[in-house]
Specification:
35% strand, 3 helices, alpha+beta, 138 residues, six-stranded mixed sheet
């Protein structure tokens, strides 16, 4: 698997404009699960917002099933917040405090991505036979 380098940019919470580079981090595994990352400085804190997604395009029925079966609480010990976000595929946006250390940020990103990968694997296993059930709901 190829290493992904993500660039963390500061984003103005008022305008949504990216202003300056905060750092860049190497992700050895599961970089394909990252849809985006940025930092917002507010209330004397630097908070990182990381958008997590799936590693493949999903069918309409899978989209709903993944959101139904994804255990967001499983990430709560690592992040401050987690919420579903809009996207072509399921997206979850997590936030956490910025760590002013290259190794610290890379380790935290790696840990979050590994946990997200594990949750996705459990979800895909749980929904593999649910197509008919979700097709009936449409």
């Amino acid at each position: 698997m190829e290493t992904l380098v993500v660039m963390l940019m500061e984003k103005d919470p008022e305008t949504g404009v990216f202003s300056n580079e905060v750092g860049s981090y190497s992700i050895q595994e599961h970089g394909n699960l990252v849809e985006g990352i940025y930092l917002i400085h507010k209330e004397e804190q630097d908070l990182v917002y990381l958008k997590l997604t799936t590693d493949r395009d999903v069918a309409d029925w899978e989209y709903d099933a993944i959101l139904d079966y994804y255990d967001m609480d499983a990430l709560k010990d690592m992040v401050l917040t987690i919420e579903e976000s809009e996207g072509y595929n399921p997206v979850w946006e997590v936030s956490f405090r910025f760590i002013d250390s290259q190794d610290g940020m890379e380790n935290l990103l790696t840990t979050i991505l590994q946990k997200h990968r594990n949750i996705l694997d459990e979800v895909f296993e749980a929904i593999k036979d649910k197509k008919a059930e979700y097709d009936e709901q449409e």
